[in-house]
From TrEMBL:
This is Sigma-70 family RNA polymerase sigma factor. The lineage of its organism: unclassified sequences, metagenomes, organismal metagenomes. One of its GO terms (molecular function) is DNA-binding transcription factor activity. Gene3D superfamilies: 1.20.140.160. GO terms for biological process: DNA-templated transcription initiation. Signal peptide: none annotated.
Length: 159
């Protein structure tokens, strides 16, 4: 090897090059390794005791990693304003309709649908047969349906 010349490894073979070529080669070799490895791998910063202080994520994200971590760039897309407003209006109408029920009817619907009691459990509390509770429930749900229809169409209130 001549003085001032250096060698680099290309495809496993040592090749003699000038200083100028060596500098350019090492510069671009390091740049290539940076893009291939450093950008794609996350790094961990440790304290003196070996505990992880901070995780420095890679600058290149893969779709798989984002899906694994349940990454959400934006708030839930499936949530839209129209559905939220409509659900609030329907809930408001339901509560208005529930207020029109008698105390016994109201208690039955609240127990079954809001307190998650079964018809058998409610029947046992009331001391009646479960089929009697079922028949009451069906009748009350029909009544609620009529009340809600009247709320939706105020012109039917006189009928």
């Amino acid at each position: 090897m001549k003085s001032g010349n250096k060698s680099i490894r290309i495809n496993g073979k040592s090749v003699e090059v000038t200083d100028e070529v060596y500098k350019v080669y090492t510069k671009y070799d390091r740049k290539m390794r940076y893009f291939e490895k450093d950008l794609k791998q996350e790094r961990l910063v440790y304290d003196e005791l070996g505990n992880i202080i901070k995780r420095v994520p890679s600058r290149e994200d893969s779709l798989d990693r984002l899906l694994d971590e349940s990454f959400m760039q934006f708030k839930d897309i499936s949530e839209n304003v129209e559905d939220t407003v409509l659900n609030k209006i329907l809930a408001e109408n339901l509560h208005k309709a529930l207020d029109k029920l008698t105390d016994n009817e109201y208690d039955l619907i609240i127990s079954l649908y809001f307190h998650n009691l079964t018809e058998r459990e409610y029947a046992k509390r009331q001391g009646v047969y479960p089929n009697a509770i079922h028949n009451r429930k069906v009748r009350i749900l029909g009544k609620l349906k009529i009340i809600r229809i009247k709320f939706a169409n105020p012109s039917l209130n006189g009928k």
